[in-house]
């Protein structure tokens, strides 16, 4: 143990003298702090947008009251009055933005057909979406392994190349002790940075101090240990420093870039999705066809779904709102199977990708971080289902006005249903991710120890 402590202290002195390594650690620390800043700023921007929606709704109501100063036809109100289905972020989303940079945080809804409104989003720079957002999870998953490689590619090879290893092994010191001390020091430095960034990020984002704190730290720690296990495997092969660096960078490219890309292509091929354009075209054809279809046919189809309104007066006018909203709803129902198949296909793709992410610890860690933050695909699909239920509630609110010919008054604005949805963590996904990372760590460290046993460290 004393020999181990001496070697550990020597590594600390060597690290302080190596200004380049200190600079790299400082650079990662600065990068991580920027990731935290960017994530918290992005979530603050989204919260600011969501906080402004009630005021927009209030102004819209005031405009509607000015436009219709007396009792009005509910059809006019449903057509011109907008409301919002809102998706509030969890505080943890500041550390792992996940899909919140791709999917909208709110949906603007009117009484018209749902599907076109549900998938309407603001235009976003596609290059920005391709590169992704720069949050703390991105730093930990994609950049941290590069620091580990820079610190450890010459873990033992530099001692051999400088002629120090023969002197070390001439002492009563086991090679495993030398490797262990060097590796332990680097693990301590990197984990110190990771834990510091994680704690700063949690405090900065104001996350609730629940069980997810330990889960985040455990995921970060296991992911770091996995890459140190990879370093141990490469070190056990006893190649030169240049070969080690190329090998480690090759493993990084394989596990962080190539395998995720191949997994994405494979999952897309194995779980094809229905074309969204087909859904849109079919809905528009159904809605536009409603103008030419006999009103009696449209209303009979609608009354089969809502028999409580069958006793309403026969439509003889050229245009009435209840007929208009009836074929709007029938247009939604016409594409309901395709919409359900699309959502089911997205979930199936997510499930398949999760089952295969053991092949890439980087994807496994990213998926787990997103699950902890409630910024993954299942959470967004849950929000869409919530928005659909909200649209159903709006229709249920308006239909009695429309079909019973009840005038819409100013007091009725306050009776309209409201919507709110807050992200919830996918803890089961995070737990599975922890287990997979633990298996990956055990595999690489086991392989490294076996290689050290079968290939004894030689001073050459």
Automatic annotation (TrEMBL):
Keyword presence, Transmembrane helix: yes
UniProt KW Transmembrane helix keyword: yes
Q: Which InterPro entries match?
A: DUF3526
Give TM segment ranges. Answer: 21-40, 136-156, 183-207, 213-234, 246-270, 433-452
Say which domain of life the source belongs to: Bacteria
Keywords linked to the UniProt accession: Membrane, Transmembrane, Transmembrane helix
Q: What is this protein called?
A: DUF3526 domain-containing protein
């Amino acid at each position: 143990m004393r020999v181990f402590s001496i070697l550990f202290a020597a590594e600390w002195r060597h690290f302080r003298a190596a200004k380049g390594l200190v600079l790299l650690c400082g650079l990662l620390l600065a990068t991580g702090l920027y990731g935290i800043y960017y994530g918290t700023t992005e979530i603050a921007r989204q919260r600011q947008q969501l906080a402004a929606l009630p005021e927009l709704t209030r102004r819209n109501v005031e405009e509607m009251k000015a436009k219709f100063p007396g009792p009005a036809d509910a059809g006019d109100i449903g057509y011109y009055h907008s409301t919002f289905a809102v998706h509030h972020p969890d505080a943890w989303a500041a550390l792992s933005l996940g899909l919140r940079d791709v999917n909208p945080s709110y949906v603007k809804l009117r009484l018209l057909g749902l599907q076109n409104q549900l998938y309407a989003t603001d235009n976003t720079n596609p290059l920005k979406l391709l590169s992704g957002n720069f949050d703390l999870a991105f730093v930990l998953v994609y950049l941290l392994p590069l620091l580990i490689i820079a610190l450890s590619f010459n873990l033992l090879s530099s001692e051999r190349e400088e002629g120090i290893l023969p002197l070390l092994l001439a002492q009563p010191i086991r090679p495993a002790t030398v490797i262990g001390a060097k590796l332990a020091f680097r693990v301590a430095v990197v984990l110190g940075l990771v834990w510091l960034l994680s704690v700063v990020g949690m405090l900065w984002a104001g996350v609730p101090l629940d069980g997810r704190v330990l889960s985040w730290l455990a995921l970060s720690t296991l992911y770091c240990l996995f890459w140190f296990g990879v370093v141990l495997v490469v070190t056990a092969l006893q190649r030169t420093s240049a070969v080690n660096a190329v090998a480690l960078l090759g493993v990084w490219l394989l596990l962080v870039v190539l395998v995720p890309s191949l997994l994405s292509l494979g999952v897309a091929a194995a779980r094809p999705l229905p074309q969204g354009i087909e859904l849109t075209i079919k809905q528009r054809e159904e809605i536009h066809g409603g103008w030419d279809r006999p009103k009696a046919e449209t209303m009979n189809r609608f009354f089969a779904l809502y028999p409580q309104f069958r006793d309403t007066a026969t439509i003889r006018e050229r245009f009435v709102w209840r007929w208009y909203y009836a074929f709007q709803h029938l247009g939604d129902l016409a594409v309901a199977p395709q919409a359900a198949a699309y959502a089911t296909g997205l979930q199936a793709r997510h499930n398949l990708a999760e089952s295969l992410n053991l092949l890439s610890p980087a994807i496994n860690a990213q998926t787990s971080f997103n699950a902890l933050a409630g910024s993954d695909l299942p959470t967004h699909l849950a929000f869409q289902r919530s928005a659909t239920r909200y649209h159903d509630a709006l229709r249920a609110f308006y239909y009695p006005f429309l079909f019973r010919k009840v005038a819409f008054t100013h007091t009725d604005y306050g009776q309209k249903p409201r919507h709110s949805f807050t992200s919830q963590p996918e803890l089961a996904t995070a737990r599975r991710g922890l287990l997979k990372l633990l298996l990956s760590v055990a595999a690489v460290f086991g392989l490294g120890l076996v290689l050290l046993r079968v290939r004894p460290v030689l001073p050459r």
